What we know:
Elements: H1 10-20, H2 28-32, E1 40-44, E2 47-50, E3 55-58, H3 61-64, H4 73-81, H5 88-104, H6 106-109, E4 113-117, H7 120-128, E5 134-137, H8 146-151, H9 160-167, H10 169-173, E6 180-183, H11 202-217, E7 224-227, E8 230-231, E9 237-238, H12 243-254, E10 257-261, E11 284-287, E12 299-303, H13 305-311, H14 335-350, H15 353-372, E13 378-384, E14 387-392, H16 397-408, E15 410-411, E16 413-414, E17 420-423, H17 431-461
Parallel strand pairs: 3-15, 5-6, 5-7, 7-10, 10-11
Antiparallel strand pairs: 1-2, 2-3, 4-12, 8-9, 11-12, 13-14, 14-17, 16-17
The chain binds pyridoxal-5'-phosphate.
GO molecular function: identical protein binding; pyridoxal phosphate binding; transaminase activity
Keywords: Aminotransferase, Pyridoxal phosphate, Transferase
Organism: Delitschia confertaspora ATCC 74209
Amino acid sequence: xxxxxxxxxxxxxxxxxxxxxxxxxxxxxxxxxxxxxVVFESGDGAMLKDVIGKEYLDxxxxxTVAHLGHARKxxxxxxxxxRNLTKNNAIKVCERLSGLAAQxxxxxxxxxxVYLTAGGGEGIEAxxxxxxxxxxxxxxxxxxxxxxxxxxxxxxxxxxxxWMEGHDKSVYASNSHRMxxxxxxxxxxxxxxxxxxxxxxxxxxxxxxLEKGILQENPETVAAFVFxxxxxxxxxxxxxxxxxxLAQKICKKHGVLMIADEIMAFAKTGHWAGMELYGVCxxxxxxxxxxxSGYLPMGAVIYTNDIWKTAFNNPSTKLMMSDxxxxxxxxxxxxxxxxxxxxxxxxxxxxxxxxxCAGRGRTFxxxxxxxxxxxxxxxxxxxxxxxxxxxxxxxxxxDIEQKVLLEYGVILRANTNKHCLLLTPxxxxxxxxxxxxxxxxxxxxxxWATLAxxxxxxxxxx
Length: 462
Ligand SMILES: Cc1ncc(COP(=O)(O)O)c(C=O)c1O
C-alpha cells in the first residue's frame, strides 16, 4: 500500500488503519466489523471534528484528560517555546505538586516528595515498587502494564497469574504465592451484600473485609492497599464515607501503606485530590491525565516525607547499590511535558477551576438525573465533580456508546464491564452543550427501553 498523503480520504485512512494499526484493548474484528472508525482531525473547547467534517460533543475530554478543553493555544505555545533540555521545569513541577499535596493534607504531605513519570500505569508501577503484596477493590482499573494488569481479577490472565501458571498452577493457587487480593468497593451497587453483617453499613463491611484480607495474607507480607478514591472506569463510583477513615486505622495498625490511584480523579472531583472528599490522606498519591490536560504525557507519584525518611534512611553516607531506588523511566520529567504541566496547573489554579468544576459537575448531574432517572434500562445516575456515571440494568453500554456516537455525534464511554456509561466532560463544556449530550443519551436509552419491553412482551406471548 502506498504511503498516506496529506490529502488522504477517510477511506484511505480506514484501509491503512486496518492494515497497520493495532488498537489498544482492540481486536482486528473490531476494526473491520460494525464498529465504525471515527478519525478526528481538529477540536475546539468541548467540540471535535472528524476528517469528513462531522462535529462531535466530547463528553469524555479525550481519554478523560482534557480538563481545559481542546485546542488551547497557551499550552501549545509553552511547549513550542521550550527548546532547551534543562531539568528546571521538572524541579518546578515537583515543588508545585508537593505544595498542592501539602495544601490538601497539611499534616502529612508537608515536605512530600514527587517522582515524575510519563503516565498513570508507570506511576502505579513506581508506587508498587515500594511494595510486594497488595489489597485493592474489585472494579478497579490500574493500567495495563504487567503489574497493574495483574491486579485486576478480570484481566490477571495478562500478568502475574499467567506467568505463575506457566510455572506451576498449584503454586499460583496457593495463598502464599498470590501477589494480590481484592475486596468489594463500599458502594450499594458493588458490595456483595451477602458478605455484610447485620447492623453494619457499607463502609464498615468493606473495612472488615480489608482487615480480614490483610490478616489472611499475614500482615507482615502485605505492603499496600491500592484504590481509586472515585472509580473511573468502574463508572464514577464513589465510596461510602465511613470507609476510608476506618481503612486508614486498619492500615496503620498493620503497617500497610495506602496508595491512592488518583490518575483519573485528579482535579475532577471538585478537589485537587479525590481523597479530600473523605478527609483521609493516603501515604502515596499517583496522578496523571489532568496534570497536563492531556496535551503531553506526564504523571507523578507523590509520597509523604515519612516514607522518604524511612525508605532512604541510611545510617552511613556510603551508598550501596541496594540503598538506591532502582527505578527510572526515559521520559520521567521531560522538560516539554513539564512546562505544559506548569502552565496547565497555573490555569486551573489562577482561574479557580477546581471550585468551578464542582459547580459544573453538580449542574451536569442534575441534568442527567432529570432526563434519565426512571428510564427502564437505567439503574442509577451518579456523579462526583465532572466524573459522571449512568449505570444500566444489563451489559449494553458498548451498544449505547456506539449509537450515541454515530447517530448523535456525542462522545462518552462504555466501561470495561459494559454495564455503565462514563462521562468526564471538560470544564469548558457549556450548559447548552451538556443538555445536548443528555438529550442524545435520553433518545438512545429510551428507545432501548421500548425495544427491551417489546422483546419481553414478545417472549411472554410465546
Ligand atoms: C484510575 C486509573 N489508573 C491507571 C490508569 C492507567 O494509566 P495509563 O493509561 O496512563 O498507564 C488509568 C487510565 O485510564 C486510570 O484511569
